[in-house]
Design goal:
Elements lengths: L1 H13 L5 H20 L10 H13 L4 H20 L26 H8 L7 H16 L3 H5 L6 E2 L4 E5 L5 E5 L2 H18 L19 H14 L8 H14 L4 H8 L4 H22 L6
Antiparallel strand pairs: 1-2, 2-3
Helix pairs in contact: 1-2, 2-4, 3-4, 6-8, 6-10, 10-12, 11-12
Length: 297
């Protein structure tokens, strides 16, 4: 069973060009599924039927897994079996008729402009690490890129003179994103005064490096962000994606075209971007309810 999973992952990487993070997610989900099958005495993927998969979904639910997690696992199993049937490795897809659990739609958490300003003021730019952190925060808010895209940036990907960066997102899709003046200045300061003191190997291509001079990881950035969120006195669960959400929402609030925001975010489907219009509408309604003299009569 594990060999077939490995074959499937190679297919996803080579034929569909999925990113490493996505492949890791598929690998983890399918490994847990196979572990469940073995505990049930099932040792061949040909033996798996609809009831087997339903039992696994029920186990995930009983363990308190969120509907989104259960849905993601079912999607991984369904895609895996679709591949196996196409390759004639199994006779049928036992997950084909199963419905994913309904996921309650949650609007993304968005920071106010004042909160963003407080957050961006936290790094101590007298230190190399502070210059780096300031540049990263400014760049995330200025471009809306994902944290995985941020830490993957190499020096040739950033053109400060022209004011844009190149990043490779999900599905290995490349996009060019404009970078505002403030973020350009922060990145320039970091490259000239901070990175030269942090990097140890002249061959290192990463834009953002850690204290050891090597490419910063997503986990490393998470720790950095948590520190500054705490220092800024911002409540709630703030993640790197919160800056991406704030970028999109603030653009739309100020009249940006939805299609342009979609392109900058790298969304393949505009319906994914449209959720930010709902956030904007909710915020406008709150302002109306708070300030219009007849709103509460």
């Amino acid at each position: 069973m594990e060999q077939l999973v490995d074959t499937y992952l190679v297919h996803l990487k080579v034929e569909r060009g999925l990113a490493a993070n996505t492949l890791d997610s598929y690998r983890r989900d399918l490994a847990k599924f196979i572990g469940f099958l073995r505990r049930q005495g099932v040792f061949s993927l040909q033996q798996v039927d609809r009831q087997s998969i339903m039992a696994y979904m029920e186990e995930l639910h009983n363990r308190g897994r969120a509907a989104a997690t259960v849905s993601r696992n079912l999607a991984a199993i369904r895609s895996f079996y679709s591949f196996l049937t196409q390759e004639n490795l199994v006779a049928a897809n036992p997950s084909a008729e199963l419905e994913s659990p309904k996921i309650p739609k949650r609007l993304p958490t968005v920071l106010t402009v004042a909160q963003i300003t407080r957050l961006l003021e936290q790094p101590d730019i007298r230190q190399p690490g502070g210059l780096r952190d300031k540049a990263m925060l400014e760049l995330l808010y200025a471009t809306g890129i994902r944290v995985s895209e941020l830490v993957a940036l190499d020096l040739p990907d950033v053109n400060l003179e022209m004011g844009f960066l190149r990043c490779v997102g999900k599905g290995s899709k490349e996009r060019i994103i404009p970078v505002g003046k403030t973020a350009v200045e922060s990145v320039d300061n970091y490259l000239r005064r901070g990175r030269v003191k942090l990097v140890r190997d002249s061959q290192e291509s990463a834009v953002f490096v850690n204290v050891h001079g090597r490419r910063l990881t997503r986990q490393g950035f998470w720790k950095i962000l948590k520190k500054y969120v705490r220092q800024a006195g911002i409540d709630g669960e703030i993640t790197p994606h919160t800056l991406r959400h704030s970028f999109a929402t603030h653009l739309l609030e100020n009249g940006a075209d939805l299609r342009a925001v979609q392109e900058m975010l790298g969304h393949s489907d505009i319906s994914t971007t449209q959720i930010y219009t709902q956030v904007t509408a909710n915020r406008l309604r709150d302002v109306y309810q708070r300030y219009h003299p007849r709103a509460r009569q």
